[in-house]
Amino acid sequence: MSNTEVHDDAINVDTEKGNFSYPEDYAYDAGVGLSEDTIRYISDVKKEADWIREFRLRALEIFNKKAMPTNWASKDLENIHFDKIRYYLSKGQQPSRTWDEVPDDVKETFERLGIPEQERKFLAGVEAQFDSEAAYSRMKEDLEKEGVIFVGSSEGLEKYPEIFKPFFGKVIPSTDNKFAALNSATFSGGSFIYVPKGVKLKQPLQAYFRINAENFGQFERTLIIADEDSEITYMEGCTAPKFETATLHSAVVELVALKNAKIQYITVQNWSSNVFNLVTKRGMADEGAEVKWIDCNIGSRLTMKYPGVVLKGRGARGEVLSIALANNGQHQDTGAKMIHLADDTTSNIISKSISIGEGRSTYRGQVHMPKHLKNCKNNTECDALLINTHSRTDTYPAITTRGQNNTVQHEASVSKVSAEQIFYMMQRGLSEGEAMSLAVNGFVNELLKEFPMEYSVELKRLIDMEMEGSVG
Amino acid sequence: MNALEIKNLNVSIEGQSILKDFSLTIPKGEVHALMGPNGTGKSTLAKVMAGHEDYEVESGSITLDGENILGEEPDAIAHAGLFLAFQYPLEIPGVSIANFIRAARAARCPEGESINAVEFYKELYEKMDALKMDRKFTARSLNAGFSGGEKKRCEILQMSMLDPAYCVMDETDSGLDIDALKTVSEGVNLMRGPERGFLVITHYQRLLDYIVPDVVHVMFDGRIVHSGSAELARELEAKGYDWVKEAFTATI
Fold first, then answer.
1. Do A427 and B77 touch (CB under 8 A)?
2. Which residues in A have their CB inside 8 Å of a CB on B?
3. Domain limits for position A428
4. CATH dotted code for B3-251
5. B135 in helix, strand or coil?
6. Is B13 on the interface with A (CB under 8 A)?
7. Considering its fold, how many domains does chain A have in total?
8. Minimal CB count within 10 Å: which of B34, B55, B104, B209?
9. Residue A1 lies in a domain
10. Interface pTM, i.e. ipTM
């Protein structure tokens, strides 16, 4: 330990909780590489309608045409070898309705991750995805009676096209960006949810995404539609084992909050340090509706994610609360987008990033308020915490405000955990890891209060593991 | 031996010698004051004892009840029973006083044991009352935006909650008005007893009117040059440090 720095080895990445895998026999395997044949294979396995097949093939064309966004984003993207990735792996079975019916090895995976326990404790429904397809899916019966739909993407499009098709690919079109196009071509799994008018879910629905296979790409697709005056909280968690080779996770999540509806979407991402996590998330809020993203990025090699809200109806509200922790060898490139399209719309962005060792955090924010709008408000706060001198943080806010009586407030801060602070805490008997963990928890504390209790507890635990994992 | 013992300690920073063959023994149950002009190495001594690593220890030993602590990590020294009340306590934003003290307590818990929250708060509130601290303070971020007096009270609160065998107080009186000085001293006096030793580092005699020491040491140029009773502190106050400098320089 030198004078001004804290130990690197005290703060190494620890994603050990998810670091295990079982050898699997897959009934369906699209093989390695991406071509029209890969897409047709996926479509055939899923016995899809022609319009979905067409949608996928068009998206593949768009993907092939679009350049990698390395002109503004990390050059590390060039290390993704699309021809070496496996795009579809499944055991070819329907998701089970009870954990007893889930194959033992898959069930053991989710038990080690604590999913059935959480379901018993505080969830209204769970979907557990293993590689390309859900292994388990179940929702409380009373919700089913109220008309709530909670299914996978294929089942949603097949059984309820009248509900999902009008919004599918509308909030995030395939042309949005290269990875949204990739997902549109290869999507499998994810959650399609419909909450009928006036139905307010008291407990959250949860999806858990698990990558088990090596050289694999997971492309789940989620679409949540909250009808007028309804409310839903959805939570997703994700892990993968630590492989030598890169793994790709590229999801698309579309949220639709109709008049006066509320959607809260919570993510705790704890991918292992070999995962490229390139996700497009956007919500649309109608008149008086609210879309709130709570986004926590702890793991992965490179995460690029900028949850957004299109404030389409008068009085709509959008919020992004995010925490990113970039440890050695990680780059968390995260942020938020708020597109104001109606009068009296408000948006709030609070972003907290922690960079440790060689870890790197980037914040990219976009707030758009066109000239003709009135009484729109945005508040943006982004705070960065640096632990040791190698850490790097960048902030790229882009705010376009025109029009009258529109207000934008932007605050940014960068602070450091100093060696003297660590010494002070260690003098009180805390280990170096505990001291850093406490400093980090203090930094995110105010924001954690906004989180549902179960998730703030889980997040604190993850931060502690991350900071203390390899002290000794 | 039941004592804090420092023997022939030589310490330098960036090649400059600061502590020169420094020796001091504080038996349990005694309060020793260490006085001296600025820049004689008092704060360096406190930090070296607590395991700060900016300093180069060339030779010597520090033991607590016979157990070596020199060269140990700061947390190990804390667990061995040494508490340092800082001259300039650090701010830890977002971490409340209650949570911080609880974490420090938890770090001392034997494996498998946990802290009883009800008892913890009861004890915390009693000690805060004794230090005339507003109970609302428990929720405030540690030292963030505190006045000088509030920081020092908070140090003594931590000291009393962590129940150390040896307390080192580095210029605890600096930044205190007379009322705060009295309250803090009362808090310290409550902790005095046969099971605890104190090293009170101060520049001024004022504090020692309230925390009456058993022994007073005068430090100059990296070593103790004179020791005596509490009376010595008053003598120093009356005569200033110049005579110490003169007397000491005359001997070499």
1. yes
2. 1, 3, 415, 418, 420-421, 423-432, 434, 438-439, 441-446
3. 9-468
4. 3.40.50.300
5. helix
6. no
7. 1
8. B209
9. no
10. 0.96
B31-35 vs B197-202, strand pairing mode: parallel
Q: Which of A305, A318, A313 lies closest to A349, judged by CA? A: A318
Q: How far is B252 from chain A (nearest CA, A)?
A: 35
pLDDT of chain A, 472 residues: tens digit per residue:
333 333 333 333 344 567 777 667 788 888 899 999 999 999 999 999 999 999 999 999 999 999 999 888 889 999 999 999 999 998 877 788 888 888 887 888 788 777 888 787 778 788 888 888 888 888 888 898 999 999 999 999 999 999 999 999 999 999 999 999 999 999 999 999 999 999 999 888 988 888 888 888 999 999 999 999 999 999 888 777 777 778 899 999 999 999 999 999 999 888 888 899 999 999 999 999 999 999 999 888 999 999 999 999 999 999 999 999 998 889 999 999 999 999 999 999 999 999 988 889 999 999 999 989 999 999 999 999 998 766 678 888 787 777 777 888 888 888 888 899 999 999 999 999 899 889 998 999 888 887 777 777 777 777 777 776 433 3
Angle between helical axes of B148-162 and B178-191 (0-180°, round to 10): 10
- Segments making up each domain of chain B, as ranges: 3-251
Please report whether residue A3 resides in a domain: no
- What's the number of CA atoms in the CB half-sphere (13 Å) around residue B199? 30
> Does B52 touch chain A if contact means CB atoms closer than 8 Å?
yes
In a domain, A31, yes or no: yes
Question: Does B104 sit within 8 Å of A429, measured CB to CB?
Answer: yes
Neighbours of A409 (CB within 10 A): 11
DSSP H or E segment with residue A194: strand A192-195
**Could B94 and A426 be called an inter-chain contact, meaning their C-beta atoms sit closer than 8 Å?**
no
**How many other β-carbons are positioned within 10 Å of the β-carbon of residue A95?**
20
CB-nearest partner of B79 from A415, A429, A441: A429
Residues on chain B touching A445 (C-beta within 8 angstroms) = 94-95
Q: In B, which residues are within 8 Å of A428 by CB distance?
A: 78, 100, 104, 107, 158, 162
| A353 within 8 A of A393, measured Cβ to Cβ | yes
Cβ contact, residue pair B54, A3, below 8 Å: yes
